[in-house]
Specification:
Number of helices of chain B: 10
Structural class of chain A: alpha/beta
Structural class of chain B: alpha/beta
Oligomer: heterodimer
Radius of gyration of chain A: 17 Å
Number of domains of chain A: 1
Helix content of chain B: 25-40%
Strand order of the largest sheet of chain A: 6-5-4-7-8
Number of strands of chain B: 12
Number of strands of chain A: 8
Largest interface: A-B, 24 and 31 residues
Number of domains of chain B: 2
CATH topology of the largest domain in chain B: Rossmann fold
Helix content of chain A: 10-25%
Distance between the termini of chain B: 5 Å
Distance between the termini of chain A: 55 Å
Strand content of chain B: 15-25%
Largest sheet of chain B: 10 strands, mixed
Radius of gyration of chain B: 20 Å
CATH architecture of the largest domain in chain B: 3-Layer(aba) Sandwich
Order of helices and strands of chain A: EEEHHEEHHEEEH
CATH class of the largest domain in chain B: Alpha Beta
Largest sheet of chain A: 5 strands, mixed
Chain lengths: 196, 310
């Protein structure tokens, strides 16, 4: 299996750990995150390989905003760990039957990290515990939170009670595209403080 | 501004954000609020058997079941109901295809605005990318409703009366004129700043040729003229507005602009000028904006009710 490695500094390493200069031919390779990778690693990657920003209309804007943030300490107390996972849904109703596959980015709350670490940082456990919505949190509060690739959550016939967690692989394209999709939602505050 | 408000709800978490806006609107306007719920889709056409949204099991719609659902609705929205004036809430239950029943009831009661969430559940919002659509009921209601439809997809950060930035997005279509009237009247009513926004679509090539700078400049100048002619000239004495014309992919630019101006409400016509209103599915621009917008989006496609609003 051909892989491409992302380093915490945002460099892409191809075969024999050689630095990649043109990322487009390797978009379909399986992505491996080096320990210590965060969203800032991807920010650096987008700056280093600007052609990747062209994969989504929302990326240049996100890169511009994230680039304005402090160089360290961009995290928030609600999220201890970010997980980029994948969901595969088999839907039978309403007809016709179909399969949907999509990526999502969510966070693991600090109180659940001990449980996750007790399992050796296992990717299926990370996927199961990732239930903190991060779309409302500005990029400047997420950049330095550790990021891992999760597992594939397979939902059978739309029944969330019958979920199967499977190990999976993510291509570089999937990850860039999935992150861009999540970044397109940023903005807005979490909840109206006035209430009703 | 609104005398009758229809809040169509599945009573699932997907409707919670819309509920907040609907109850707030009703409270501020001292309007009559219809809490409207359509029982789960009949399993075979129009029967008495429905699929309960909570348990997923088939149930018979009899008096007991109706009473139970009504009680459930009142329990779910108990806190919000407390804020309403006495006698202003009416709970309505219906059996049938949700969008048909919502439209039928809206027409029957001549409501001024319909408030809805975009999806049944939060999970739908996550997976909507691959589905590439907002909820089917939402689309069909937005297309055919004679009154404005307020789509609340994410938590609304301010209450209606405290809105300070309203963005009206136009493609200069006939439907956009109705949307303008709604945005203008709302801005005047709540004392908000009205942004008149147009995004020149330069993402598509005509016969394989992309527009050059001169052509783009010409389009921008034309858009300014049309803003003046179609909208600014109709604002009598209202000067709290700003015109912005950007270039790019319309929904991307609208979202960027809304974020930049910390918009409280986006008002748009629900489909483009190329399609007749009776044939239009919800325009892709509206769909993309609804999906991602941090603030509520009002989709307006006909002048009928808008012209009557105070």
């Amino acid at each position: 299996m051909e892989t491409v490695v992302v380093t915490p500094e945002g460099t892409l390493l191809g075969g024999a750990c050689l630095q990649v200069h043109t990322p487009l031919p390797i978009l379909g390779r399986t992505l491996v995150l080096q320990p210590g990778c965060t969203l800032r690693s991807f920010l650096r990657m987008f700056v280093h390989y600007p052609i990747l920003q062209e994969l989504s209309e929302f990326l240049p804007d996100w890169v511009a905003e994230a680039s304005q943030s402090p160089e360290q300490g961009c995290s928030c107390p609600e999220v201890a760990q970010l997980v980029l996972g994948k969901t595969n849904e088999l839907l039978g109703f309403p007809p016709p039957p179909r399969v949907e596959q999509f990526l999502w980015l969510r966070g693991i709350a600090p109180e659940h990290t001990a449980q996750w670490q007790a399992q050796g940082g296992e990717e299926r456990m990370a996927t199961a515990l990732a239930n903190v919505e991060v779309r409302f949190i500005p990029a400047t509060l997420l950049l330095d939170i550790p990021l891992v690739l999760g597992a594939l959550k397979h939902t059978v016939l739309g029944n969330v009670n019958h979920e199967l967690m499977c190990t999976s692989r993510f291509t570089l394209f999937e990850v860039v595209d999935g992150l861009a999709w999540e970044f397109s939602f940023r903005g807005g505050t979490q909840q109206c403080s006035l209430g009703v | 501004m609104f005398g009758k408000i229809l809040f169509a709800t599945t009573a699932s978490p997907g409707s919670n954000n819309a509920a907040k806006s609907a109850f707030d609107l009703a409270e501020r306007n001292e309007a009559r609020l219809y809490l409207f719920h359509v029982f789960g889709a009949p399993t075979r056409g129009f029967g008495h058997l429905v699929r309960d949204l909570k348990s997923g099991e088939e149930d018979l719609v009899d008096t007991d079941y109706r009473e139970w659902v009504q009680e459930e609705l009142h329990t779910i929205y108990a806190d919000q109901i407390k804020g309403l004036s006495k006698g202003t809430l009416a709970t309505q239950l219906a059996v049938g295809v949700p969008h048909t029943e919502i439209l039928r009831f809206a027409r029957q009661e001549d409501v001024d605005i319909i408030v809805m969430g975009a999806h049944n559940s939060e999970e739908d919002n996550t997976s909507s990318r691959s589905r590439a659509v907002i909820g089917n009921t939402m689309r069909k209601v937005a297309r055919a409703a004679k009154c404005p439809v307020l789509i609340v997809n994410r938590p609304c950060t301010t209450c209606w009366r405290m809105f300070s930035n309203i963005i009206f997005c136009t493609d200069f279509s006939k439907a956009a004129d109705a949307a303008f009237q709604f945005a203008y009247k709302t801005a005047k009513e709540v004392g908000a700043k009205l942004y008149l926004f147009h995004a020149c679509d330069i993402s598509n090539a005509l016969l394989g040729v992309y527009a050059g700078q001169v052509e783009i400049e010409r389009k921008l100048a034309k858009a300014r003229e049309m803003m003046q002619e179609r909208y600014i000239s109709r604002m009598e004495g209202f000067d709290n507005y700003q015109v912005e014309i950007w270039e790019g992919t319309p929904y991307v630019e609208i979202l960027k602009f809304a974020r930049d101006k910390k918009a409280d409400l986006i008002v748009m016509a629900h489909h483009t000028h190329d399609v007749h209103e009776d044939e239009a599915e919800i325009g892709s621009t509206v769909e993309q904006v609804v999906l991602r917008s941090a603030c509520p989006v009002a989709s307006v496609n006909r002048m009928d009710k808008v012209s009557e609003l105070a």
